[in-house]
Specification:
Length: 194
């Protein structure tokens, strides 16, 4: 059951059997139906979660009330509002399951206990924050410097399985285009592949 999360963590640090047990004993596995809001704007994020199974998105509401997706997370990804979780301040984001999901959760108390008992986990969380920052920087650069078509191509390179797993309007909200545009570009790419 914990094989994937142990493999994810041991990319950054080595764990002996006792440390693995301490870690896994602190995790809570939650089975969450699709379309469940895990975090709403104004709430304080109380989890850092590892997606064992499923698909989750992070989004915010723009000034016109439209959803703007900023991140998709699938198996082997971590999900949270890092700023809200760390500072225990209200979030500006929503986190929602798009598919039925199984997520291993840490709350602020269990994370702190983990860091006290196994200090080298600081490296794991530092590396995850760096990866998240890298992903968001790339997204920002692509949004500013690339055409909508190129942004879609970059999107399917980063998230190759997402187009088969989520509705087109989620992809459109991520790219900042209409769902009709996404449909058109997908058709154009399918024609080129033939």
């Amino acid at each position: 059951m914990f094989e994937n999360i142990i493999k994810n963590v041991t990319r950054f640090i080595n764990l002996n059997a006792d440390e693995e047990k301490i870690f896994t004993d602190l995790l809570v596995c939650e089975t969450i139906p699709k379309k469940t809001i895990l975090l709403r704007e104004g709430e304080i994020c109380q989890f850092e979660g590892f997606i064992h199974k499923g698909c989750v998105r992070v989004y915010y509401l723009d000034d016109n009330g439209f959803e703007v997706t900023i991140l998709f997370a699938i198996e082997d990804w971590w999900i949270s509002d890092i700023a809200s979780f760390q500072d225990q301040k209200p979030s500006n984001l929503y986190i929602e399951t798009i598919e039925d999901s199984e997520i291993f959760m840490l709350n602020p108390t269990t994370k702190e206990k983990l860091l006290q008992e196994i200090p080298k986990f600081e490296r794991v969380f530092r590396m995850l924050v760096q990866r998240n920052l890298f992903t968001l920087q790339n997204r920002l650069v692509n949004t500013i410097s690339k055409s909508a078509s190129d942004r879609y191509l970059e999107f399917i390179k980063v998230y190759p399985t997402i187009p088969q797993r989520v509705a087109q309007y989620y992809i459109a909200s991520y790219l900042g285009v209409s769902k009709e545009f996404v449909s058109t570009i997908r058709k154009r790419l399918a024609t080129k592949e033939k």
